[in-house]
Amino acid sequence: MRLPRRAAAGVKVFAASSAILLATLSAPGAQAAPATTGGECTSPSIDRLQQWLASGEGTTVPATGSLLVPEGGGYAAKVVFQKNEWHVVVVWLGNLFDTQVDLTGSAGFWLTYRADDDFYVQLRPASHWSGGDKWLTPIPATGGKLVRKFVPFAPQAWTSLPELGTPPYSFASALREARGLVFVGKTPNSLGFRGLRIDAYRPPCR
């Protein structure tokens, strides 16, 4: 799952793709939002997603392991990216690594988060889990404010970065065998997640 560190070349791609997602901020519910609790499982979770993990790639706090901490009667996932290098945070959609989910019937997901800087989310399929050459979409900074935004699974909203490589598979196939959503960024950043609710999918508690 190591991400290559070739020279940055994705700024124009980020800007173009951001225009698609920033438009969703005017959609109903895509605004400053209260925190969601989502503690439906017996173990810590956010919207029934129990595995929010620092992968050990990039300098992060925490360096590895679960990001979940108690907050507001539920749980939040918190991580700090510390350097100008790629950092990787993983969410297993089936709450186990060796699972995959068919998201072809889903319109997208609502993300409740705060971020000091822009970052990306990758959709990683089971058959092409490792490496940086994944379909991704930019997630804009919030100025540290907690916001809720909709991220569509429309193919035109997803792209790739030249420095990470072109995915050797289609976006449609990634939706059919989705293993995880992976948050990546290459700048110092403070991130907090309070909600990740996927349309037409209910994660199983483990």
Folded structure, characterized:
The longest helix is centred in the first third of the chain and has 12 residues, at 11-22. Helix content is 9%, strand content 34%. The model is unreliable at 5-38 (pLDDT under 50). It has helices at 11-22, 171-176; strands at residues 52-55, 60-61, 64-66, 68-71, 74-81, 87-92, 108-115, 119-125, 135-139, 147-152, 178-185, 189-198. The protein has a six-stranded antiparallel β-sheet. Strands 2, 4, 5, 7, 10 and 12 form a six-stranded antiparallel β-sheet that branches. A hairpin with a 2-residue loop joins strand 4 (68-71) and strand 5. The protein has 206 residues and is mainly beta. It has one domain (11-163, 171-198): Sandwich (Jelly Rolls), CATH 2.60.120.
Considering the chains and any ligands shown, give keywords for the structure.
34% strand, globular, mainly beta, 9% helix, 206 residues, Jelly Rolls, 2 helices, 12 strands, 6-stranded antiparallel sheet
Distance between the termini: 24 Å
Helical coverage, percent range: under 10%
Which structural class fits the helix and strand makeup? mainly beta
Q: Please, how many helices?
A: 2
Major sheet summary line = 6 strands, antiparallel
Overall residue-averaged pLDDT value: 87
CATH topology-level fold name? Jelly Rolls
CATH homologous superfamily assignment: Galactose-binding domain-like
Report the count of strand segments.
Answer: 12
CATH class: Mainly Beta
Shape: globular
| Amount of beta strand | 25-35%
Helix and strand run: HEEEEEEEEEEHEE
Radius of gyration: 15 Å
Architecture (CATH level 2) name = Sandwich
| Uncertain spans | 5-38
**Spatial strand order of the main sheet:** 3-1-6-11-8-9
Number of domains: 1
